[in-house]
Amino acid sequence: MAAQHPLDALLSAADNALRALFAPAQAARNPELPPASPLSPSETRHVAGLMRVNHAGEIAAQALYHGQALCSRAEATRSLLLRAAAEEGEHLAWCEQRLRELGAAPSRLNPLWYLGSFAIGVAAAAVSDRVSLGFVTETERQVEGHLAEHLGQLPAQDARSRRILETMQAEEVAHGETARTAGAAELPAPVRAAMRLTSKLMTRSAYFI
After folding, report:
1. What is the DSSP letter of 182?
2. Per-residue pLDDT tens for 193-205?
3. Buried b (16+ CB within 10 A) or exposed e, 27-50
4. Separation of alpha carbons 176 and 189, rounded Å
5. Which of 208, 205, 19, 191 is nearest to 112 (CA)?
6. What's the pLDDT score for residue 9?
7. 102: in domain
8. What mean pLDDT comes out for the span 131-136?
9. CA quadruple 12, 14, 15, 20: dihedral sign
10. What HEC string does 90-122 produce?
11. Which value, to the nearest 10 degrees, does the dihedral of the CA atoms of residues 100, 93, 138, 204 take?
């Protein structure tokens, strides 16, 4: 496949950003969801906060992969990143739909998460494709951990949210394994720690805002 012209790549990146942040998310496939169960007002607020965090995480993941794809050297790496971003876009749609069902809105800080993650993706890809794939592996490892925590916090009767998060978790694990198999570099401990700190800031903010 011929390399994408730089201007086309930039226009595509801008289009991806606008779609992720301002267009209703669309999913070509959806998990089979059980009927919604009644939740108390406090349970509804808590589940909405968790789903808002996961929605913001999917915004950030899409931005990271779009930034990496923009500057990736190998077409195989670019294709891998864009496939992962497409699946994250479907996760985004699932979270967005669940937020609507709960009468809640996405995080108002989503543009900030997108811009910051896109910049990280570009910087990672500028180093090398192996480092870029290392960010995929570490990102998915941390997302898997967050999802496990959220699954433990869901009300027992909320099987609908649980099915969404379990489906997402399985696919995040697969993304990380695909990147590892493709030659991902292990990131230095300080970089992994900085990623955890940034993630903690995002999750605590997105739960409320």
Report:
1. T
2. 998 888 888 888 9
3. eeeebebeeeeebeeebbebbbbb
4. 18
5. 205
6. 62
7. yes
8. 91
9. positive
10. HHHHHHHHHHHHCCCCCCCCHHHHHHHHHHHHH
11. -20
Question: Which amino acid, residue 130?
Answer: R
What's 30-98 look like in SS3?
CCCCCCCCCCCHHHHHHHHHHHHHHHHHHHHHHHHHHHHHHHCCCHHHHHHHHHHHHHHHHHHHHHHHH
Report the b/e string of 118-140 with b at 16+ CB within 10 A: bebbbebbeeebebbbbbbbbbb
- CATH code of the domain covering residue 60: 1.20.1260.10
Confirm whether 18 is domain-assigned.
no
Q: Are 110 and 21 in contact (CB under 8 A)?
A: yes
Residue 23 included in any domain = no
**How many domains does the chain fold into?**
1
pLDDT of residue 4: 56
pLDDT at 2: 45
pTM for the model stands at: 0.87
* Residue among 136, 127, 143, 119 at smallest CA distance from 181: 136
- Would you say 53 and 131 are in contact if contact means Cβ atoms under 8 Å apart? no
- Pull the structure tokens for residue 111: 């543009």
pLDDT at 1: 42
Question: Which tokens go with 190?
Answer: 């300080």
Expressed as residue numbers, the domain containing 166 is 40-208
How many Cα atoms within 13 Å fall on the side-chain side of residue 75?
4
Please indicate, yes or no, if residue 31 is contained in any of the structural domains: no
